[in-house]
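Thread amino acids onto this structure.
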């Protein structure tokens, strides 16, 4: 029997839905409380409607369920954040402060908070981007994630908070829809390939970005959270790598299954965001510290995406 009681905040999003499924399997359904600002139809219980910005309500839910660990997923992603920068800062930062403070007070034992490749910026080396390098993000999302990383490390060093984090690349899965990021095209393309055998991409053909198939990302998250505390040497956030590809390459991978598939390009404001991010990530620290290793390459991911979406 698990002695952990887990709360996922932002559980109805792209990552939360798949993370909840996996945590329930590992810890037992009753020990994983889902929560989100919006309730879905057929919402799986236990579930609480919870706004991370409402600190009192967060305390209430944590106390009610005797929560020991929180996975904080509520945030505005890169493209949405550019449209509403003030609110993005408020949500992405204050949500994190509420959880860090509860861990500082000893109410929570362990916290997971995701960062992003968006912490890097146009002055970062773009190929095989190292864990430690120049970081001058120029999107509000990236700035909030970088500040969040600094706060996580600070709370760990000053107050001993057990906070763990991964700089996710763009995540691709078939079970849930993406929530307003620059890498969302790599999910939409599979849906459109099956629906209409064509896709109009908002990034140009050569835009190579780091990506990852969702089951790899969920496994990385849980492996990091279950690693012994002494193995988790980085308390800002870990680089992890999966696959790097551009729109032309994912289209070619889809054509191996749907030969008539075509891609066209109509770039928008998200091109500038993508151009400020790395093309590939060096994840040697995660491999060394807690044994991270991705499983899916582009063609393996295309195969499972198309099989499942069909
Ligand atoms: P998402 O937008 O799909 O899901 C976020 C969820 O949070 C939504 O269900 C939303 O309803 C909920 N939410 C919004 N405001 C809330 C509030 N005030 N209180 C409670 N819940 C609220 O996002 P996601 O893709 O699942 O991302 C989760 C986390 O992972 C974010 O921090 C994001 O920055 C990070 N991340 C995601 C990716 C990716 O490719 N998906 C990549 C890097 C980092
Ligand atoms: N997938 C995310 C986004 O595009 C990266 O953090 O915003």
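Threaded sequence (310 positions):
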């Amino acid at each position: 029997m698990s002695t952990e009681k887990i709360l996922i905040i932002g559980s109805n999003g792209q990552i939360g839905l798949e993370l909840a499924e996996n945590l329930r399997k590992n810890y037992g359904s009753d020990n994983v409380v889902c929560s989100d600002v919006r309730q879905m139809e057929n919402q799986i219980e236990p579930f609480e409607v919870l706004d991370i910005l409402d600190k009192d309500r967060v305390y209430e839910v944590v106390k009610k369920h005797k929560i020991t660990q929180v996975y904080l997923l509520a945030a505005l992603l890169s493209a949405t954040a550019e449209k509403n920068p003030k609110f993005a800062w408020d949500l992405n930062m204050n949500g994190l402060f509420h959880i860090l403070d509860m861990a500082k007070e000893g109410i929570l034992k362990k916290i997971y908070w995701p960062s992003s490749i968006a912490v890097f910026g146009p002055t970062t080396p773009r190929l095989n981007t190292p864990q430690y390098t120049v970081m001058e993000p120029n999107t509000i999302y990236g700035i909030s994630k970088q500040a969040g990383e600094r706060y996580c490390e600070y709370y760990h060093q000053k107050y001993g908070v057990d906070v763990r984090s991964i700089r996710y690349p763009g995540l691709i899965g078939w079970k849930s829809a993406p929530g307003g990021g620059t890498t969302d095209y790599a999910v939409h393309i599979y849906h459109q390939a099956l629906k209409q055998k064509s896709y109009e991409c908002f990034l140009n053909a050569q835009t190579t970005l780091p990506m990852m198939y969702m089951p790899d990302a969920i496994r990385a998250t849980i492996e990091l959270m279950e690693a012994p505390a002494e193995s988790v040497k980085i308390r800002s956030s870990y680089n992890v790598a999966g696959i790097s590809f551009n729109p032309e390459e994912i289209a070619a991978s889809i054509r191996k299954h749907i030969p008539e598939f075509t891609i066209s390009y109509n770039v928008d404001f998200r091109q500038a965001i993508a151009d400020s991010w790395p093309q590939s990530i060096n994840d040697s620290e995660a491999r060394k510290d807690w044994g991270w290793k991705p499983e899916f390459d582009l063609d393996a991911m295309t195969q499972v995406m198309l099989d499942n979406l069909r």
